[in-house]
Specification:
single chain, mainly alpha, 97 residues, rod-shaped, 2 helices
Amino acid sequence: MSNKKYSKRGISIIVVIVLLIVGLIAVRTNSLRHQHEEKESELSSLEQKIVEAREETDSINKQIVYQQTDEYIEERAREDLGLVDKDDIILEQKGNE
């Protein structure tokens, strides 16, 4: 009977240890799953920021190209410097004298 007592006690201890290990693995797995979800969300956010940055870069590059055209230079000269073309008609308002 002594051998049976030790066997039951030994099996009980082994079962408890196995259950503890399984519990620890489950807790760690859940923690890792949560971290993975957070990282996936962060990755998605960063990918969206990359798309937005590329769109902004494209817009800036188009603006740079446009600003190098004669059309843009003439437009700025007209607005900022009052440049008139030789075919333009200039109307001046006379002041009250």
